[in-house]
Amino acid sequence: MTANKSNKLLHLTIENGVANITLDNAPVNALCGSLIKALKQLLGELSYNKDVKVIVFDSANPDFFIAHVDINILEEQGILEELAKAAPEGLNIFQAVGEMLREQPQVTIVKLKGIARGGGAEFVAAADMCFAAAEKGKLAQCEALMGIIPGGGATQYLSSRMTRSRALEIILGAGLFDAATAERYGWINRALPDNEIDLFVNQLAQRIAALPEGVMAAVKKVLAPAKNVEGFKAENDGWATLAFTPRTAEIMKKVMANGAQTVAGELRLEELLRNIV
Amino acid sequence: MTANKSNKLLHLTIENGVANITLDNAPVNALCGSLIKALKQLLGELSYNKDVKVIVFDSANPDFFIAHVDINILEEQGILEELAKAAPEGLNIFQAVGEMLREQPQVTIVKLKGIARGGGAEFVAAADMCFAAAEKGKLAQCEALMGIIPGGGATQYLSSRMTRSRALEIILGAGLFDAATAERYGWINRALPDNEIDLFVNQLAQRIAALPEGVMAAVKKVLAPAKNVEGFKAENDGWATLAFTPRTAEIMKKVMANGAQTVAGELRLEELLRNIV
Amino acid sequence: MTANKSNKLLHLTIENGVANITLDNAPVNALCGSLIKALKQLLGELSYNKDVKVIVFDSANPDFFIAHVDINILEEQGILEELAKAAPEGLNIFQAVGEMLREQPQVTIVKLKGIARGGGAEFVAAADMCFAAAEKGKLAQCEALMGIIPGGGATQYLSSRMTRSRALEIILGAGLFDAATAERYGWINRALPDNEIDLFVNQLAQRIAALPEGVMAAVKKVLAPAKNVEGFKAENDGWATLAFTPRTAEIMKKVMANGAQTVAGELRLEELLRNIV
């Protein structure tokens, strides 16, 4: 079975039980309200499609998987209200994105061939698996440089994947991590040569989709992700006390003026953020 | 003190407080009912031997540590009933093998110089430590390809050793992992050059056996393995719903016809299983 | 802001929100009662200094970070009684050192450019982060060779950082681990070339200290270290049953006679301990 579907932000292909979702939100795949809404709708539809066993996410952008949450997201007020209303009890709208992914009945795999920062890195960590291109795949929790802390699940997801020491280094150091280091820290499954990642992930996805009936669902049930309600609450409390301060608003304004959310600026976002006085 | 004991499946040597148990169930060291019974008896006897501080497991077979649970194990009905009767409350007979190993008063170390799949990989993961030969040591949870999920503790043991992402990759991808990747994932202590593993493990075992009285027992008590009763129940529930279906019976029959449980077939078992239509 | 303070055991520099504490207890930086007392006093003072965001620990000794707890510590009876009185309910005085570090409001980073064994390795593991020099940074829990088990938190700290298999190898094998292996096991954040570690750690510390107000505290609050009261009790029970036996007293006496707590002896302490008959 093959199917194709496209809107301006997501491209879907389904073949042999594997759905491929390509994110396409130029110029840098910022996670805006519209993209969250489109993902929510598409994943909701796929969750009823019993023929789809695996969902692979990649990006139409050669440099970015998901830049981070759109810095201008507050302008999308209508969509934000809608998302807030739909978020599960106890989760903010960003945490709800990751948890939506974690509850997807299919196996979800990120093919990381570009940069994912902030909410984009949280999307990666929420997926069942991630394989990253050794050269171009990179991850960062850059929130600290913006005057906030991660607010979309990273504190919980990182804590379940690596030592507290390394989670602190990632969040407080706020640097851009290459795929090899991300692998050593447990952040991703593994780093693969850039010219092998497509073959590797596609083969893995096809093999999982070809498993005898019932196996994938049984494994996902036994290895269901832990839910730490208090952890999400603590994260949101920390995030919310910092997210709406004048200092953070000022950083966001200045970094946008200096090139954030352009390709050139996002390739050196840490530098832009560290240079704000 | 030196002692030697042998039955057709297990060879025992004891020297300076280290017991060496060599598994020998030609042609591929399948974990059959008789082998489980022999292990149970020998480990039971050793548990009363205060002079033995460390138990090292290796294999008489140059290619296999334990192939996996014997595909024909259901033919050993008498032994299975006996094992089921003796299994602790809440554990199936395969989970009982691993938990027996985890409750052994001695330090248990696997010297992995060949392939361990399925129930054999679960035996490895239940031991206190595992060192693997970089070239020849390999691990797989191949159950998914047989239409089932691991039912002898792997879902619990892997979850305590590595990220959920990697446990999902191992169980759902069902591939054969080399020792270096197994080390990076936390599956084993470490991979060692094939010509160094004997010296390394023997020296480690001797050193532990030579520790001052009471130290080994005190460490094992403080670092006692966690028991997750609900996790074992969930695993068994998932396994039991798939293990006795016509589809699984058919796979087992076909893979036996195509060479499973022969040396040549087991060296490429994943290929045999993936080629079943 | 820059400040300098020195007593015979600790040297303090503060610059741009980063405090650097250099341990200096010749000849091998043994963790004696006086050093614990000095650390307690200095960390207590720093905990009220809102200008200090990060504390970096290093050593004045080119070979040792902290050798281990001073073998002659029982001679400092007055200080020990003082420390025991001040220790939190349920913690022995060595566990209290690590937990003091873990409750420090600042981010604590160890720059490990020499050997840390026993209580010194526990100090390292209690810090928020540790970066080790690939050549000279080394770690060991050597207690087993002394007839005891770690009694200052190692059983808990190691268990939260790595698999049980590796914690058992470290504690029971009691070997000296190089920085690369310590990194692979999760014991430290990472190993760095010896000529890069100063630059790396200083830059990381400066970056964290320069984060917008409130971020560091919010992250430390959300990622607060777990407290396992029962684990500490179990560790102390195991330690206390072995620490005051004639066998341990004899080992301590003999190893002191053979060169322990001298530079030459401590460079090969495992050998000294294994050769005691």
Write the layout of secondary structure elements.
The structure is a homotrimer of 277-residue chains.
Chain A: E1 2-6, E2 10-15, E3 18-23, H1 33-46, E4 54-59, E5 64-66, H2 77-86, H3 93-102, E6 107-112, E7 115-117, H4 119-126, E8 129-133, E9 138-140, H5 154-161, H6 164-173, E10 177-178, H7 179-185, E11 190-192, H8 197-209, H9 215-222, H10 229-243, H11 246-257, H12 263-266, H13 269-274
Parallel strand pairs in A: 3-4, 4-6, 5-7, 6-8, 7-9, 8-11
Antiparallel strand pairs in A: 1-2, 2-3, 9-10
What keyword list fits this structure?
2-enoyl-CoA Hydratase, Chain A, domain 1; about 15% strand; 7-stranded mixed beta sheet; about 280 residues; homotrimer; alpha/beta; 4-stranded mixed beta sheet
